[in-house]
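DM from R.C. (forwarded with permission)

"hey, sorry to bug you on a friday — could you get me a structure for this? deadline for the figure draft is monday and I only need the backbone to look sensible"
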Amino acid sequence: PRSKQNKQQATANLFNQPASFKYQRSLSNDTNTKAKMGKKGGGRVRVVQKGPKMPANPMADFAIPPDEELNLPVKPDSGSGYLIWPMGETITMKYDNFSVIYPNYLDSNKTVKLGRRIAAKDAVPEPTVQDLHEALASLNVRHVIQPYKGYSRDSISRWDNPGRVLVDLEGAAENGIVGMGTDGAFDLDEVPDINDDNDKENNGGSGGGKKQLLREIAKVIPKLPNRQTRIEEKAKAAALEAEKQKKLAIQAEKSAPSKGGGGSGSSGKKKKGKKKK
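My reply, with the result:
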């Protein structure tokens, strides 16, 4: 057939072409690229870029230098670091039923919303978990210190003033420090006790309970030697910082350029006029 003859003729014409036609490759002569034939690559083309290269990280110029980075301390495990007082009962003490006391409960600088449980006149400013420990030890009340626990209502105190204590209220009642209500229970509710005559109104007429223990602790804390030393050092540091800021302000005023004004003639400019003959 005629179609078969056409195919045979086309095949013959293909094999009659020179070798340069069958293996011809066009290579780009672009000045920014360089093409190379791979000897072992089976005729593949490798393109090598010339000129400036893009940086590995385009945002490297905006990165913060390592010496200016803010490295926060690693948050400790809140379930570690427990200290038991007295230490002789470290293994035998069972504190599952102990009552919780946070420093916020008796901090006069905190509001009721932030956790204060007693009247501001009965509270003390900025108590710490160390103050609670020393006060309870002086009252001979068994307790457990949890230094890394934070009060959930106050995010500031969770970082600046962490810690809490677990208190044995039954042992405190045996020592006569606190008492029970008429129903035979301690006032463990979260209602703040801020009335003047709260001793009888909030504790069933017995004048005791957990809030009474908070008031007793608040009476002991101002007399603690370690607290007095800490407050004195804090006051000295604040005074030094205020003096430093005052000196910096004076230096800034001296180095600032003086503003011209008024009719004092201190501008330094001479008036132009006609020369005398």
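R.C.: lifesaver. Strands lie at 33-37, 45-49, 83-85, 99-101, 143-146, 164-167.
me: no worries. The chain has a mean pLDDT of 77.
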